[in-house]
Amino acid sequence: MRYHVRTPDGELDYLSFREVELAYMQGLVGPDDEVREEGQTLWRKASKIPELARARPASLQGNAARIRFGAVISAVVLGLFSLRLIFSESWTRRGIGIALALVTSAILTQLTRQAFKRPGVP
Known about the structure:
- The protein has helices spanning 17-26, 50-55, 63-86, 91-115, and strands at 3-7, 10-14, 34-37, 44-45.
- With 122 residues, the protein is α+β, with helices and mostly antiparallel strands.
- Strands 2-1-3-4 form a four-stranded antiparallel beta sheet.
């Protein structure tokens, strides 16, 4: 069964309710967007549909969001510090700067992977 989602920017069509649920979990469909099953005339807010309300991942809210924001800020500070060390006169400091740059790269790679990970996919 197809579903239609009406947002402030326009209307989207989904082939199944599962696709709507995944879009809701990823934030592509917001709680105030309206959802209608094909063949129906009634539009319902996504937040009022029990299946979607339960599907909202708690990790995108509260402490998890603050932890991710802190990790990004820490990575930026660490990256700036590593650049300062890389451009110093001492070869030892340059080596430490390169090592810190690699650690920063690993942190940002992990954060990016988490940000683009699809819900329901391991």
